[in-house]
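Researcher: Let's try something more involved. This one mixes different molecule types, so please make sure each is placed in the same coordinate frame as the others.
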Amino acid sequence: MRSQRFRAVMACLAVVLATACTKSEPSAPAQQAPAPQAPSAPRKNITLAVVTHGQASDTFWSVVKNGVNNAAQDLGVTVTYNAPQTFDMVAMSRLIDAEVAKKPDGLVVSIPDPEALSRSIKAAVDAGIPVISINSGSDVYKQLGVLLHVGQTEYEAGAGGGEKMAATGVKNVLCVNHEVGNASLDLRCKGFLDAVAKAGGTGRVLSVNAADPTDSQQKVSAALSGGVDGILTLGPLSSNAALAALKQGGSLGKVKLGTFDLTPDVLSGIQGGELEFAIDQQQYLQGYLPIVLLTQYKQFGVLPAGGVLPTGPGFVTRETAARVIELSKQGIR
Amino acid sequence: MRRILNRPELGAAFGVVAVWLFFASYAGGSGFLSPAGAATYLEIASELGLLAVAVSMLMIAGEFDLSVGSTIAACGMTISLLCDRLGWSIWAAIAVAAVLSLCVGLANGLVVTRTKLPSFIVTLGTLFILSGSTIGVTRLVTGRTQVGGLRQALHYGSAEALFASRIGVFSVSILWWIGITVLASWVLLRTRFGNWIFGAGGAPDAARNLGVPVARVKIAMFMTTSLCACLIATFQAVKFTGSDVLRGTGKELEAILAAVLGGTLLTGGHGSVLGAALGALIFGMVQQGIVFAGVDSDWYKVFLGAMLIGAVLVNTYVRGWMVEARR
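Model: All components are placed in one shared frame. Result:
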């Protein structure tokens, strides 16, 4: 009994000591407005934070992350990159909250669901942290107090894909959505289907589970039986699955396939004529540029005059595929 | 003294202290110790805690509920759709969502008690049915998978005050968490119904022989769990002024995890709601502490898993140590 009381006392002491020690650490001063440093100021103590919605299994976001890391290395600044494990806006908003509590010199976010994320992003803006949005959110970034947006406008990108698809003569299309709940992807499909409808065709959305390629492939296979002659996938995960479904059904070449975003598989598919085109948004720049911009903003208070810095849409077709392939292998396109 | 040492939540309390000390020393300088930092993990812990308290009671009564994750999505979407599409008052929409959740709980409870099928399977089925209908109905009605615009809903202001306001930097959901934990603790430890819950999970046949309405107790606990899931949906829908069809995914496992961290046995008949609340606190601290520590999100799950196993070990070790010390 006595030794036990002794242990309890020691445990209490340890807790009290730890509290006293850690609390006395100085916290970083709040950065209310951009405070330009002297031109020669070292960048070593500039810390930036990136929070995106990209799932780890999505190769697209690996390229964004490569952009972030290369920029951080080139500039000599510290950057932390965070993303929720699943497409979960509540979890993402809490990652932003935590980063804001760390008071970074700048914050980069993607905004796939403005309703859910506005609270956290506004809190960052109110705390005086300069925020740049990337990838999704081109239509809402201004209302949230975000300085500028780096990415492509989703509806127009989808519509561009629709026009290109319609030009090949297809009449009945599918838009394969692999991230149900992402407003940007909904916009792409809407743009795509609107453009196809304008050209006199019809189409519908097919939702698949990105984390399960078998599920995606079988759903596309099943949908093909409805006389579909054109498919647009919204990312490499589902384009691979759609390609596999076409091969399995023996309709390769008969059904036109277009996709968003590049991977080595997609590029070799374009080269081999299995895919018609890929819509490229050069996401490497979506990772790289904000780090450069925020570093310059912190150092000198300079920033482009605002608006959307477009990184896409561009189209990669059979003619241009070869030179893109090399860069894709390096994780840059 | 002996009664304190015998409490199942003691290990969880030590786990809380250990996890807090770890992050305070490792990530203290980057904001983990600031009030804003504490607010971020307390908010996560409070919402998970609400659910974990109910889930631990259900587990003490000997059953599981895997459907709570999709109940969150279904209830959140019900609120958003009724307000956005039909222009209902947000309170009426919340009431309908609550009734819906009670029906889900009732259905789970009736199927489990009538058919004697394992609740693990029955509620897994409910999980899929609810999740699929939420996606299907939402897309059918709106053509999208997110519904927002709750801020324009009738009486939004009063709902925001109750579910989404802040006291300083702290979310009001923390008060709900504390309130519900106290209420549930009282029910479990001080009322006859609480005894019935332990009986239904620990020795159902003996309890039945003593006249405990085991089936009714279990059904009531299924309904309570569903209602708590609906409460989380309400918090998130009001706070984030809308819903998406995937919200709440995985919450069912997190809640079971928090309950187990808090000393609730997977086999039923033993456990504590205070422990479950502390388990949720451990979970929240680990989840946000990793961000404060600046760990790259690729490694996030490794840390989460390791810390959770560590916390369970501390929990178990402390309990064993206390049992020995008593002799």
